[in-house]
Write a structure and sequence with these properties.
29% strand, Rossmann fold, 14 strands, single chain
Length: 307
């Protein structure tokens, strides 16, 4: 069942179309990704979903009805542009935001302390926000987003500015929330994070939805002629080979697309015959990064052709 439906949303600013007729649906109990490059329209889409921006056209439905107070009261929203009161102390800040959402008392204070300990901020609970690093300020705002136990989490670029340890902790908590039955919607331009977390996604480029569906369905559809290879040796001999359509170097691995699905085994045989040491060979495997480059690149080519 879809808990949230976005129908034909369009928004322009000063004659420029930021979101162009966007439609998609968010299933219950899912981690839903809105992915795309910076400036693609992700934040504008989120702000229209939350009624921060009024769309020029289109609508957002929550359980079949237009979004209103019931939806907004049950949302924890982490904006891309973080907003905390610099002079307030950390614990006071958390309790203040919880109170805005109607949560007060000893239980919510204890929960705030638990999260501060988990994020290694307990010793800074009486520090002013302005005295924290940007990364620690972001952790405080994330705690404020989830402290009132919302049914929906809407997180705009939640991993920006976090180190790997805190990124892993954030991801861990997000997945815990999914296990609790929460709906999590987050935007990111970091495809590798989305690939590890989302159940369903939309990919947006230049304001247009260019891909929508479950992660597994999307990868299956786009991976049929794709091979991910980790190896030692020189594969330059593949350039210009009649069975190879495209080679993408990712540093630690290489994506190779053959012209027909049957040629994946032919590719493996060719690599072995040329003395390439194969460490990993995954047929029918493709990353979200590769899919995005393929689709966004095709859109760019169409624009040039139609110019």
């Amino acid at each position: 069942m879809n808990v949230l439906e976005i129908r034909n949303l369009t928004k322009t600013f000063d004659g420029l179309t930021a979101v162009d007729n966007a439609s998609f649906a968010v299933p219950e109990g899912s981690v839903f990704g809105i992915i795309g490059r910076n400036g693609a329209g992700k934040t504008t889409t989120i702000r229209m979903m939350l009624n921060i921006y009024i769309p020029d056209s289109g609508e957002v439905l929550f359980k079949g009805n237009k979004v209103g107070r019931e939806f907004r009261d049950n949302v924890g929203y982490l904006p891309e542009e973080r907003g905390l009161y610099k002079k307030m102390k950390v614990l006071d800040t958390l309790l203040f935001f919880a109170e805005i959402k109607g949560k007060t008392g000893r239980a919510v204070q204890q929960k705030a302390i638990e999260y501060l300990k988990r994020f290694e901020l307990y010793d800074r609970r009486f520090s002013k926000i302005e005295d924290l690093s940007k990364g620690n300020q972001q952790k405080v705002q994330f705690i404020a987003t989830i402290l009132h136990d919302p049914e929906f989490l809407v997180l705009d670029e939640p991993f920006a500015g976090l180190d790997p340890i805190n990124t892993d902790l954030l991801r861990e908590i997000i997945l815990e929330k999914r296990e609790e039955g929460k709906v999590i919607i987050f935007s990111t331009h970091l495809m590798e994070y989305a690939e590890k977390m989302v159940d369903h996604l939309v990919m947006i480029d230049k304001g247009k939805i260019i891909l929508e569906g479950s992660l597994s369905e999307i990868k299956n559809k786009h991976a049929q002629r794709n091979v991910s290879v980790t190896f030692e040796g020189d594969i330059s001999f593949l350039h210009g080979n009649p069975i190879v359509e495209k080679i993408t170097d990712f540093g630690n691995s290489t994506g190779i697309r053959v012209k027909t699905p049957e040629q994946t085994q032919e590719l493996l045989k060719l690599l072995v015959e040329k003395g390439i040491k194969i460490k990993q060979f995954n047929a029918n495997d493709i990353s979200l990064h590769e899919i995005f480059i393929e689709l966004a690149g095709n859109e760019a080519e169409k624009e040039v052709a139609n110019a």
